[in-house]
Amino acid sequence: MEYAKLNNGIEMPMAGFGVYQIPKEDCKQAVLDALEVGYRLIDTAQSYFNEKEVGYALAETKVPREEIFLTTKVWIDNYGQGITRQSILDSMRRLKVDYIDLVLLHQPFSDYYAAYHELEKLYKEGKIRAIGVSNFAPDRLADIAAFNSVVPQVNQVEVNPFNQQIKAQEYMLKEEIQMEAWAPFGEGRNDIFNNETLTSIGKKYGKSAAQVILRWLLQRDIVSLAKSTKKSRMEENFSIFDFELSDQDMKEIQKIDQESSLFFDHQAPETVEMFVKFIEERRK
Predict the structure, then answer these.
(1) 117 labeled binding residue
(2) pTM here?
(3) Which pLDDT does position 284 carry in this prediction?
(4) pLDDT band at 108; cut points 50, 70, 90
(5) How far apart are CA 71 and CA 45, in angstroms?
(6) Is 191 exposed, middle or buried, given 0-12, 13-18 or 19+ CB atoms closer than 10 A?
(7) Which partner from 25, 171, 181, 196 sits 20 to 30 angstroms from 165, CA to CA?
């Protein structure tokens, strides 16, 4: 395993296992399998509704707690003074831990300033080892970094070969904010696993397109999150430390960048409206 050193000195594994959209009935075993394969970064969120199942796995695994880098994310409906703090304490209870390695604000909407202040307080109390944000574009990231006492350690954003976030990463590198990739495979969109560039590069090394993508992220110093309920696929996704892409490979992959999200634009008004509907539906 390789590690990224965050701007507060904490080390974060470069390869992580995410549990987004993993059903509750499969989540505990998936996390146990991921830890057995070698993953040490486990990423969940309040909005995934499987923190409790992750907690069951953490309680059962033989891997020491101090070796596991645990991340959760605060949902928009839990933003606000006092509310954010209680929601994180509730997450800790569900996860069966007395500290969380990284807590992120899940979306750049609603009262995220008040929510971030609550993260800062818990960070200074030692209940959270690192704090950050998710889906923050460079302008909002610059804002929250400039006008708060703790610069975010991490920004988790969509990064894949079709949305490479090159300019966004330039700012993060400048401010020493670690970029972390969600949806590195684009959830299979654009027939990514059969992409000619990725498969041809993979053939040179005896690797799959998925492994090429994760290795490409690693060489860009971007933490990646891969997800699967199949242990064999976990093993494949974790096997990215035994080969290295050439400079030419990296240039060829850069050519397929479409510079736009495969999902939705967080800076578009329509996206805000979409999340308002999400909140209303979940309240019901």
Answers:
(1) no
(2) 0.96
(3) 66
(4) very high
(5) 8
(6) exposed
(7) 196
